[in-house]
Amino acid sequence: MKQSQLFTKTIKEKPKGEKSINAILLQRAGFIYKEMAGVYSFLPLGLRVLRKIENIIREEMESISGQEVFLSVLQPKELWQKTDRWSKGIGKNVMYKCKGNGEIGLGPTHEEMLTDIVKNYVKSYEDLPLYVFQIQTKFRKELRARSGLLRGKEFGMKDLYSFHTSEKDFKNYYEKVKKAYFRIFKRCGLEVILTEASGAGFTKEFTHEFQVLAKGGEDRIIFCPKLTSHFAQNKEISKFKSGNKCPVCKKVLKESKSIEAANIFPLGTKYSEAIGAFFQDKDGQKKPIVMGCYGLGISRLIGALVEVFHDKKGIIWPEEIAPFRVHLILLPAKKITPLKKKAEKIYFNLQKAGINVLYDDRKDKSAGEKLVEADLIGIPWRIIVSEKTLQKDSMEIKKRDKEKTKLVKMKELCSINF
RNA sequence: CGGGGCAUAGUGUAAUUGGUUAACAUUUGCGCUUUGGGAGCGCACGAUUCUGGGUUCGAGUCCCAGUGCCCCGACCA
């Protein structure tokens, strides 16, 4: 994409009142636009990041046999009343009033709806197991939306639900999802800590959260620093404290602020029984479907990534999820035409090779401004074409997170592993 | 929902503590000069000072109410 066509612009000053790093940088660089507290619109750059994460998630969900759906945001009150979650807060939290329909829930989650759909198709043990996911906007009445994308009233989420004939079958799949989640976060460049958390009313056992260590986070976890995922607990439920010995390896436990990027938990038969989702088993018995639920906050994940990957100058996107792979910058010069020709050739060749390029072809922008903006936006590879580089018949290549630059000839361009 | 802070051109700030034409920077537009880290000079555009009441000869400034934003706490299926 040519940057001259990108309608967003970077902002020099930090947005008034903002303290959260992700809120400041994402707004300054033009990824998101704040509509109100906890509600953000995604602009071209932000949407590209969102889509890349979504695609990774899609691939990994499909690799564990997930089938994608897109359920409605507006949800009938009656379903929520069946599980007693309308009056107890959830349904009441966010609500839409529509003439002729009375009150309609604005989906904060989709257990009720999906279970209701599934019960119409699943009749026999032969129809199970079943794994269904969606990528959707959720609405929640947060009493205090805060920290940019980390806690919103409206946010993007992937929610996967699994349906099983038995607890044992559920547990097998639960472990598969754990592995898939680790793959997702790894591809996003993030280290996560699998953390035990409370059952939140669904189960007496632990549930699991995928926590990202970050100063800007609002959770606190107790964890063993030896192996990031062999022992960690949310501080809310942990009997251990920082300085205690790890129950697994006796190393000294640490405490840190963190961001909950995902959580997974058993639902048992709570929803299937309430909604009436039963199947007939091999033995002829009618049984409630055993369910599991697996959430991953996509917009929050973007916030978490910025909290983790930034420096004084701006964002440093991990390669797989950066809005573009390469930021090609044409610096101003007296004789711009030969430089421009060269830059456009590079632009063309990279795109032909399937590499996303943001090409800063803007006129009337100083070298300083272009460079500062590039650092703020945080695209992983930077290529500069200038008078300096043209004299040596080459271009300058630099990684966003490194200081070193390297001169490369046009011929060598294809051999670089962007 | 409790506590604290803030609200002034698109953006970020100022305004002698109640005094008259609301200032500066930036952005935007035009012109000239610059050209490797948010460049310089000049000109121009841009404001019902969050909203509604009140006090006063006079309110951006004081008082009351509301709304919004940020932070702390509670809550977070």
What would a concise description of this structure say?
The strands form five sheets. Strands 3, 7, 8, 9, 10, 11, 12, 13 and 16 form a nine-stranded mixed beta sheet that branches. A five-stranded mixed beta sheet has the order 18-17-19-20-21, with helices on both faces. The chain has two domains: 3-71 and 110-308, Bira Bifunctional Protein, Domain 2 (BirA Bifunctional Protein, domain 2, 2-Layer Sandwich), CATH 3.30.930; 324-415, Anticodon-binding domain (Rossmann fold, 3-Layer(aba) Sandwich), CATH 3.40.50.800. It is α+β, with helices and mostly antiparallel strands.
What is the strand and helix layout of this fold?
Blueprint: H1 21-28, E1 32-36, E2 39-42, H2 44-63, E3 67-68, E4 74-76, H3 77-82, H4 90-93, E5 95-98, E6 102-106, H5 111-118, E7 130-139, E8 154-164, H6 167-187, E9 193-197, E10 207-213, E11 219-223, E12 232-234, E13 254-268, H7 270-275, E14 278-280, E15 286-288, E16 290-297, H8 298-308, E17 326-330, H9 336-352, E18 357-360, H10 367-377, E19 381-385, H11 387-391, E20 394-399, E21 405-409
Parallel strand pairs: 3-7, 17-18, 17-19
Antiparallel strand pairs: 1-2, 4-6, 5-6, 7-8, 8-16, 9-10, 10-13, 11-12, 11-13, 13-16, 14-15, 19-20, 20-21
Helix pairs in contact: 1-8, 2-6
The chain binds one RNA strand of 77 nucleotides through residues 9-20, 34, 36-37, 85, 88-90, 93, 108-109, 111, 140-144, 146, 151, 200-202, 313, 331-334, 365-373, 375-376, 384, 386-388, 396.
